[in-house]
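Blackboard transcription, Thursday session:
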Amino acid sequence: MSRRTPTGPALTRRALLQRTLLGAAALGLTGCDRLSENESVVRLLGCAETLNLRAQRLLAGRESLAVEYPASMISPVFRPNGTVDPQTALYRQLAANDFSDWRLSVGGLVQTPLELSLDTLRTMPARTQITRHDCVEGWSAIGQWTGPVLGDILEQAGVHRSARYVVFHCMDQLDGAHDYYESIDMVEAFHPQTLLAHSLNGEPLPVGNGAPLRLRVERQLGYKMAKYLKGITLVEHFDDIQGGKGGYWEDRGYTWYAGI
Amino acid sequence: MPQHASDQNSTRRLRHRLPVRAWHWINLWCLIVLLLSGLQIFNAHPALYWGSASSFDAPWLEMYAMRGADGSVHGITALGPWQFTTTGFLGYSDESVRGFPAWATLPSYQFLSMGRIWHFFFAWLFAISGALFVLYTLLTGHFRRNFWLDGRDWRGLGHDVIEHLKLRFHAHSGKYNSLQKLSYLGVVFVALPLMIVTGLCMSPTINAAAPWLLDLFGGRQSARSIHFITAFSLVLFAVVHVAMVLLSNPLRQLRAMITGRVPRSPSSSDQESSS
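(Written on the board underneath:)
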């Protein structure tokens, strides 16, 4: 066996290391930016979303409840985010007469499509919960939400066996061109805390927070909780809806699973 | 048989075993990506609070921009009641309003969703490799040899502190001194796990699965603050760690952490091993 000198292989490795470090420095930020725009890199990194979903479902199960807070912890102002005053013709017109003409449609893969007025929704059995809203940006606010449990409405409509997702269609357009929309799976849709909230802190939902009706999915981040609802459809897949990624923000690069 | 003498015929002795070296370099890349993408995420809302919800008018740390009387924009960093002008670095840099500057975030421009995608991928890598490393240290005796402080280490602590203050290091001996052991113990078994746990605390689904964890850290916004503070304590550790390497025969240290071996030379082996 040839006796390896201490310097020989180490020098080669050192040279290699130096070259690697220089290369990394030269690539620098532009390299990182380019990686962030490379479709294969994004797809590879995106694998973590599947891991997040699987691991969190395993840990949290179907039924674990989001933390509910005492009334004393309600945030003085529930910060509105995203659209705060929809300017679409439909919304302006419905808002002009206090949403008395507004109807929530429930359709798609259901046995009985529904058209629910605000009065109907307000007189249905409701759940009230004080929960924390976590924005994907990092801030949190606590509010008291009241509204029918989504699962009850879905049961009333009779969900078809083939339905895998519930898609929420909204009346606002953040970019002035595309209706906001979102989707959740059946586990989250039938979660006892998933509400169609018509009230915040005991008052009808303010416009900034999604009047007349918004979704609450308490185990996920804020962008899931669609405001200004106009319709719900049950679907097998969402490939053919807008950008095909299952939501307004998802079409713009955000992960569909918003549990973390 | 001495633990480092596994390669008697070679001119070099084993300093770091493969799992230690692999973990060290995987960790380096994970922590760099996690830090840069973490700052990207932080920049989406560059303010920190204590408790469950955000008290928007009273964050304990906040970075923002303000237009001065002369029309120019200043970057401001507010820490509790104190305000500092940090134009060009925090609050306002590259002619845009942003917490940390472009060179410190991944990607460089404001792109929260991409920052999150980088962060979570490397968080998995970091958590899995970290868990395997901790298992390795516990199962192989690495923990007892390199992390655990025995009576002699505790008694030598004062001496080690003084030696370090005099910038006299014995880092290339086979054994770690008590200060090294304490800092590695703190990083591997406190700071790194704390990063993972406080990170998980920011997930609403994990909050539902383990509400007690949220109580442990005093609420979601507290967990976010602790995540941020711990990240900076790790940056501080990295700075000191690299400084130590640079101050104590850097090429030899670097080679030891890459190849695992250090030269067996008369001036370094026996005397140092006993220090």
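Lecturer's comment: The mean pLDDT of chain A is 91.
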